[in-house]
Amino acid sequence: MSRELIRCVDLRVGYREAILPAIDAVVRAGELWVVIGRNGSGKTTWFKTMLGLNPPIGGRVERPAPGLRFSYVPQRSVYDDLFPLLARDVVAMGTERGGSFVMPRFGEPPQVRRALSDVGAWDLADRPFRQLSEGQKQRVLLARLAASEPDLALLDEPTAAMDVVAEREAFEYLDHLRRDRGLAVIVVSHFLGVAREFADRAIFLERDTQSVVVGTPDEVLGSRAFRHSFGDAEELCAHG
To answer: Which of 17, 45, 155, 205 has its CA 20 to 30 A from that of 36?
Structure first.
């Protein structure tokens, strides 16, 4: 069995008070997780708690693997549109450890070109990041993730701005990364058909019904809690 990277033990997440029941989950190297839930269900709050950005309301996050390296791709770019970054600069920033956003040390490590090429974005390397479409930005951020060489990658709806073909290619790339490099990937996605195809594990979070379900994709999509919120999984997967 692969080594454990992070554990959620009776974890309660929220702001001042818990917004979900306790979460118990173990993420191992090489696994691809899909996070399912409606907008506002608590997915991003869970991410931020695992990253250490939000303190737990209860329980704990354990990191059995010492020196665990994270990479986080948010829903939208956090870069100021007035900051003159090229796409290749954004990717190069992923290779910096302890660098500064205000005064980054722009270099050209070899993994920058490789990562941009792997996501089909090398032609964007010398274009200003702020001028890219949302889909192109997400491709660059995927390249930045790969260049950072993390142990655990968390992605919050990375394919939301992509068309169906690009969305599948993104999942294929994430699948390649976790198999080739052994990193764990946790990704929020509403494209249930593709996510179900690639994921090993799934977690369903629903704040309104106070539901947390962890298991294989089939177990989660077949659960009573999921069907209560979304209906028939087969029909949803066929359309997404």
So the answer is: 17
Separation CA 35–CA 54 (nearest Å): 18
Q: Rounded distance, CA 142 to CA 212, Å?
A: 28
Cα(88)–Cα(86) distance, integer angstroms: 5
CB distance 221 to 196 below 8 Å: yes
pLDDT mean values, one per 10 residues, the chain (240 residues): 91 96 96 92 93 95 89 68 80 68 55 90 93 85 90 86 78 89 90 84 95 95 90 59
Q: Do the Cβ atoms of 22 and 10 come closer than 8 Å?
A: yes
The sign of the dihedral angle between the CA atoms of 175, 176, 182, 184 is negative
Q: CA–CA separation, 237 vs 216, rounded Å?
A: 15
Distance (Å, whole) CA 142 – CA 176? 12
Residue 110 has which token pair?
């070899």
- Name the nearest CA neighbour of 151 among 6, 34, 1: 6
- Size of the chain, expressed as the number of residues it contains: 240
pTM to 2 decimals?
0.85
Return d(Cα 117, Cα 122) in angstroms, integer.
Answer: 5
CA atoms of 99 and 96, how far apart (whole Å): 5
Helices 110-118 & 134-148, crossing angle to 10 degrees? 130
SS3 of 31, please? coil
| CA distance linking residue 208 with residue 42, whole number of Å | 10
Residues 43 and 114: their CA atoms lie apart, in Å, by 31
3-state secondary structure of 225: helix
Which 3 state secondary structure label does DSSP give 100? Answer: coil
